[in-house]
Amino acid sequence: MKQDMIVILDLGSTENTTLARAIRDLGVYSEIHPHDITARELKELENVKGIILNGGENRVVDGQAIDVLPEIYGCGYPVAAIDHQAAQCETKLEALPDTNWLKEFLFNVCKAEPNWNMKNFVEDQVELVRRQVGDKKVLLALSGGVDSSVVAALLLKAIGQQLVCVHVNHGLMRKGESESVVSVFRDQLSANLVYVDATERFLGKLAGVADPEEKRKIIGSEFIRVFEEEARKQEGIDFLGQGTIYPDIIESGTKTAKMVKSHHNVGGLPEDMKFELVEPLKQLFKDEVRACGLELGLPDSMVFRQPFPGPGLGVRCLGAITRERLEAVREADAILREEFENAGLNKKVWQYFTIVPDFKSVGVKDNARCFEYPVIIRAVNTVDAMTATIEQVEWPVLLRITDRILKEVENVNRVCYDLSPKPTATIEWE
């Protein structure tokens, strides 16, 4: 590994990601690990230069204050503590460190080198993937979104034709999405791409399921089953590639952090899965994934493409999915994307999409009373997907979008704009 690392041990802080980003911003790689990591597990990490114990409001679990194992202090690494009373730490702070303190600890105490950059990251991951995979094949879940596209490019660089990309159309894709994926990856990038239309299979499994966590788990499990079936048609596939990124892991919860929501590629994987996972982006934040894509030579149009959740429109058609509402959210989303592009907002806004909830409201169409669904528009800006602000879209643009949705989308009589930032809201509704 070409990059020095600082390990953050989670002792109940809500500021772990802030600290990790601050360290990376200074050019040093950082990772967040559970408080009860063993000395052996710590030693297995490469190029560790120091440890920060990050305590906080969640440090007390079931009435007991959690702590690191005593053996950690004997590993030979410099140890600092934030808001954590550890007698064996040479450096103690009452709160999150300022940049000056952090520089002092990283560069003078730990002797870390500021060698965290995408060129080194890519080289490290290529080496690690080759070491992990050997001469076997990797089956990649390729949605065509930013994360899976960057993973595909990285794995192609690492193992070439040992990569088999599988694009599953689960019937929850945006309008024209699957056709675009096939065109870009099979025709332009010459990837070994398998296309699977599993629309009826997924919608059948999801029929009547309203709970968002259950929907995620069904979609995640069914994805694995489809991949297993495709793997049986190949030879030598022992690995499953995924576009898991750091916010997916963090939001799905750790031993000392509360779960925000499970992600289909983290919390929804079946226990009896027969693949070993290959997840080269799992320690990157969203902006770092994009930087990685640029380093790999992917075009801007792909790197800065609209984020799209793994469960697709399944978490934007709220509650139990119906074909009627699924079609409404798909058509409304297509209108929103077209109008944002016309207004130049597609290059300004990080993520924008529509939601159709599972309730109706009274309205008037053709001089008659109607009882139909609302469409909710959401447009947010963020750097790392951990926090988000609302885009203040100009009124004429919103009016034009509203007019088109009400005229062109069936079973809809109302359009709303979501003004909630993250926190307290998450970016998606489910």
Q: What does the overall shape look like?
A: globular
Low-confidence stretches: 254-268
The percent range for helix content is: 25-40%
Radius of gyration (Å): 23 Å
Enter the CATH topology name of the largest domain: Rossmann fold
> What is the fourth-level CATH superfamily of the largest domain?
HUPs
Question: What keyword list fits this structure?
Answer:
430 residues, alpha/beta, Rossmann fold, GMP Synthetase, Chain A, domain 3, 5-stranded parallel β-sheet, EC 6.3.5.2, GMP synthase activity, GMP biosynthesis, glutamine amidotransferase
Characterization of this structure:
With 430 residues, the chain is an alpha/beta fold. It folds into three domains: 5-109, 3-Layer(aba) Sandwich (Rossmann fold), CATH 3.40.50; 118-303, Rossmann fold; 316-417, 2-Layer Sandwich (GMP Synthetase, Chain A, domain 3). Helices cover 35% and strands 21% of the residues. The chain contains 13 helices and 17 strands. It has helices spanning 16-25, 39-44, 99-109, 118-133, 146-159, 177-188, 199-206, 212-232, 246-251, 286-295, 300-303, 323-342, 395-408; strands at 5-11, 29-34, 48-55, 60-61, 64-65, 79-82, 91-93, 137-141, 163-169, 193-197, 237-241, 276-278, 351-355, 361-365, 368-381, 389-390, 412-417. A five-stranded parallel beta sheet has the order 2-1-3-6-7, covered by helices on one side. Helix 4 packs across helix 10 and helix 12 (323-342) packs antiparallel against helix 13. The two termini are 38 Å apart.
